[in-house]
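Students often ask why we bother encoding 3D structure as a string. The short answer is that it lets us treat folding as translation between two languages. Here is a chain of 599 residues written in the first language.
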Amino acid sequence: MAVAPSSPSFVLSGQVARLWQSLPPRRRTQFVLLTVVMVVASIAEVFSIGAVLPFLGVLIDPQSVFEHRYAQPLIQALDLREARGLLLPLTVAFSLAALFAGAMRLLLLFLTTRLSFAAGADLSIEAYRRTLHQPYAIHAGRNSSQVISTIMGKTSMVIYGVLVPLVTLAGSLFLLCMILATLVLIDPRVALGSFFGFGLIYGLVVGLTRRRLAANSAHISREQGNVLKALQEGMGGIRDILLDGSQATYCRIYQAADLQLRRAQGNNVFIGASPRFGTEALGMVLIAALAYWLARDSATIAGAIPVLGALALGAQRLLPVLQQCYVSWASIKGSQASLEDTLALLEQPMPPVAEGLAEGESLPFQQSIELRQLSFQYQLDSAPVLQGLDLAIRRGERLGIIGSTGSGKSTLLDIVMGLLRPTAGALLVDGQEISDGCLAAWQRHIAHVPQAIYLADTSIAENVAFGVPKARIDMARVRDAIRQAQLTEMVEALPGQYEAFVGERGVKLSGGQRQRIGIARALYKQADVIVFDEATSALDNETERAVMESIGRLSPDLTILLIAHRLSTLQDCDRIIELKDGAVVASGTYESMVLARQA
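And here it is in the second language, the structure alphabet:
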């Protein structure tokens, strides 16, 4: 009967296939080569088991071994004259077989661990790369805690819980077949009986635990994101928490998520480890029964000991391998939800220009930006934010935009910056429509100064040249940008000057200084369009005037778009438009807009 698409085994096998396709070709080749090492290690393990039979035989009844037809080539090669002469070579052979098998297991462990973690790093980097290339609309609709949790935590779970166990499972299954084949050669009935007996035990355990493992997997995947969300909210709102004394509330939120996460992880560890103790006890009973049976069937107890020793060694190898197979399966099953979340990031589509952005074609901007019959809505069933909007912006113009909250101001600028795509109409630059093919080229013309400037806990120079590797920062451009933003005096008075650290999110700077760093960042980019999205709304009047003076002194060749709530903030603009319900309801100079409001 075909497996239903909704069955867990079908889903898991499909996930493993998707994970394999997500690996770089180089890693896939390395995993294939790793299987060769597994084969050699398995053969070495079989030799170490097979070598115990003649070794025990020569200890107990050397004459029988000396007369055995398989021993004759060795006897002739070493020119042995008596049975006891076999003791040394067989001892050396057994020791070498054991040492070689141990060395191969150690090598296999090293290669498996090294390759699995290297592959995990590839997956994490690829998930991060694809996430950064997603459109702004995707990021706006996501919970950042869940994304960060997947890239940081769940990719690690894929390493520990899927990649390493998968490789271990493959090696264990091959080794299991080799050990079983060796034991069958020694005594088929005992070997097959032992295998099916132990296999039945593990099969029952799998049937009893797979639903619980799947449930734990979902808990772990969900609560990892909730734990990170609780941490981000607690640390991000630390001022209000300290003022309100609400530490206990956030501790309870964190504890609720963390406790469920730890409990699910602990349950999975117990489910994976618990069958071992039962099977080990049953294995001891089985070996005792075999000893009794073989002793009764053999002419002497000495004749049973070599076979019993080989079977005991085989069982000693067989049980850990079976346990390894089960633990690997349990680990993969317990990480299934995290694997699915990771695969979702790895399978995010990449934009056509994602590879080699710097090599894209240039897009000239010499005349104007035009929005033609432009409309936008966030959801198909939601009200339009912009509708039928026509607007032309000349190169070098300073355009102010005002309007009440929800009028579409920020959405309009997001469309101009290419962060959102219009649902109808078009955005044109010098008459050329901005499509996916030229979007990156257009965005190279634009710099953005938001209301809340993101500042990394690095130096002033690195924050101004944001996104540029430190070794490639042009300090002359940094100083020029700082000068134009009127920050030179402040920066050069700091210990370390341009290398002074600003603190996490710029905590060591004032609000006005942070905004001017944002302006300097825009200037360093040498963009010819600068967008100020309510960049001064959180500042006091005096600081706002100082920042607006800095903006006013910028080069007249720059095209500047400013959003503000207060009309007075935009008095130096060439033109001001007012938005209401997604449409332009007024347009004119600052003076005409003031008169219109007074009328």
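Translate back mentally: The chain is about 65% helix and 10% strand. Keep this in mind for the problem set.
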